[in-house]
Amino acid sequence: MTLALIGFTGSRRWTHVQLLENTLLNTWHDALQDGYTGIELIQGCAEGADTLCRQWGIRNGIPVRDRPADWDGPCGPECPPGHRRRNRRGTEYCPLAGHRRNQQMVDEGPLLFVAAQVQGSTGTADCMRRAKAAGIPVHLITA
Question: Per residue in 114-131, pLDDT tens?
């Protein structure tokens, strides 16, 4: 059999490292029990939970696919005219770039998504909605 592709989405404000790591370890073990040879992670490269997921994967020899949002890049066809904003540094960005990245991760067809959500995390909520709409199970952890 092959590696189980596991999607990961999480809040930038996530601080519960042990809960996240235990969840990823249990997901790895579940994949082995289901006959996979291991797991591969796909994550969105945001600060907080995504970074912790990536670090855990690297420490444990797990392949990690990085899918950063292209905040500074061109807008997509779904973007309305004049919607770009400026961040604290004064750089213009597309506020829908995170949604496009989330859809890209869903489109890669992971077996499931692990979601580490802090209340009010809209990016994590968006990715979970997209995964569920695609029929991909979501394992939510909250802190």
Answer: 999 999 899 999 999 999
Torsions phi, psi for 105 (to 5 deg): -65, -40
Please state, in angstroms and rounded to a whole number, the distance separating the CA atoms of residues 137 and 73: 30
CB contact set of 128 (below 8 Å; sequence gap of 6+): 9, 113, 115, 117, 138, 140
Domains in the chain: ranges and CATH: 3-142 (3.40.50.450)
Place of tokens 């061109």: 74
pLDDT digits (tens, 9 = 90+) for 55-88: 999 999 999 999 999 999 999 888 999 899 998 8
Q: How far is CA 68 from the centre of its chain?
A: 9
Please give the model's pTM, rounded to 2 decimal places: 0.93
